[in-house]
Each structure stands twice: as structure tokens, then as C-alpha cells.
Specification:
about 300 residues, alpha/beta, 2 domains, 11 helices, binds guanosine-5'-monophosphate, binds manganese (II) ion
Amino acid sequence: MDKALAQKVIDRIASAKSPALFTHLRPDGDAFGSLLGLAHVLKDRGQNPSLVQDVPDQLPSEADLFVVLDTSTRERVGKKTTDWKKPVDVVIDHHVSNPGFGTLNLIVPEIPATAGVLYRLFEMAGWKVSPATATCLYAGLSTDTGSFRYRGTDAQTLRIAASLVDLGADPSDIAKHCYLSVTPQRYQLKKLTIETLSLKDNKKSGFLTIFPDFYSKSGAKSEDTEGIIEEVTCIQGLEVASLFEFGPEGGLRVSLRSKGRVDVNAIASSLGGGGHRAAAGIRFPKDGEKNRDRVLAAISKAISALED
Ligand code: 5GP
Ligand code: MN
């Protein structure tokens, strides 16, 4: 982590009275954990943060700092925020594809979750990490590393996790809330989706499809797709897993996962999306089927380029 840059971020955040904290659309564990973790720290310091989940039409007028966490592109804060007059003051993130769309950009790809970047920042600033903060940050770190299984997990990741446990995070309790609390509706959506599995490229890639009527059939919500793709990644011999979600208006949302040999960020970036080497995504507003075929062709090409 660039210490001089981190210090600038600390100074900028410390001088704000009412920072407005944003994260990406369809927030995941790291997005929520980072948002709530930073909010707790700022509250404990006597600042007055606001957490923004439902994107308003304008930046709240009392906000004197515009912070975006865990968000790889400006658009993923919310389309309607892109024409706000106030620029994003501070971006804190870990996505390698993040172009740095803020005035200050603390982007640390060597830490596998934004929550981990925040922990290092708080440590450097000497800001108190309460048990509540530690719990939020641990949840972000755990979920974004697939419970410390993905490639980005290294000694530093585990040291951050250990420090958070020292500070009051309870791994078993957090795991219960993050992984052992699936609603029956979410489970039903997963079941319908897994039935669509199709293996190709010599069983080195596999894809799942979510059709619009799966929501009415299961009663699930759009955020309930989180984690389904991991059910494909676990297949032995598979290199790339993808999930295609067709929207009711013909759009397509794509999730890509790699076991490490294929760079799915390169595939996603070449088609207008982004993410990380092992987990990336793309959104197409229209031409769902045509775009699915483009993605599948790019995956086949990447797999055929691998040496056995
Ligand atoms: P997921 O498949 O869980 O939605 O996303 C995996 C990763 O890819 C996340 O880190 C996310 O930031 C990134 N990602 C997902 N969708 C998009 C997208 O449409 N554009 C970009 N630039 N990144 C995305
Ligand atoms: Mn993240």
C-alpha cells in the first residue's frame, strides 16, 4: 500500500464532518462490510457519516465528502450519479481494473478485499477498530476471498483476519450469518439454476443460465444469485465457470470465475466489463443471446490457448 497516498486519504477523511459513503450496485459482502466498517469507525471518531444504499437523485446536500468503496467503475456507483456535479473525492478499492475515477484513489489489488484495505488504513491512522467494526471488516474479507480459499489469499490476508479476530470478530458467528442462512427462496433459485448446467470446451468450461421466470418460480430476489456460480467452479477439471442472467427486457448480466489459469478479467474487459483475474463480470443492456455467444467464444479461445 502506498503510504503517502494512504496518508492523504486519511487526512481527507479525517477533515470531513459528514462524509457520504457509497458502494456498488448489487452490493456483496465486501461492499456491505466495507461500508458499515468505515461508518462505524467514523461514528466512533465523532464524525457524521451517511450510508448510501438506495442511490438518491443528488448527493445529499449536507455531505462534505463523497467516498466510494469497493467499486471498480464510476457507472457501478449508479448510472444516475454519473452526472452529479460533485466529483468522487475518495475511492478505496482493491479491483485491479479500477481506472481511479476519484480525486484520491487508494486502489490496492494485493489485498483481496476492500475491507482489508480499510483495516490497513485504520491501523495506519491509529483509528479505533471496535468489535462491531472488526465484525464488518472480517465479513468483507471472508466473503471476497471465498472463505479464504481464493488465490489472492496470502499470509497478509490471514494476518489481517487474525488481527480482526483479536479485535472482536467471531469467525464462526460471522460464517453462520454469511453462509448458513440461505432463505428457502434463494435455495429454490439455486436449484433451478443448477439444473441448467452445460459443460463445454472438453469439460473445461461450464455455464449456468438464469431466465426471468426463475424469479417468479422461486420467489427469490435479484441479489439471491450471489454464490450460485461457485457451485460450478467446484467441478473437477473445470477452468472457467460462467453465469448468464437474462433480463426481462433482453439484457444480459454475466459472471465469470476462473480457477486461476485463465484471466477472466481480460475476457470481461475485452467485452466492456471488468473485475479481477479470477472473478469478473459484464453487463449488456441488450442482445442477450448474441452477447452470451460472444462471451462463450472468448472463453473457448482462452481455454484452447492453455497448454495442457
Ligand atoms: P460478480 O460476478 O460477483 O457479479 O462480480 C465479480 C467481479 O467482477 C466483481 O469484483 C465485480 O466488481 C466485477 N464486475 C461484475 N460485473 C461487472 C461489470 O459489469 N463491469 C465491471 N467493470 N466489473 C464487473
Ligand atoms: Mn470487493
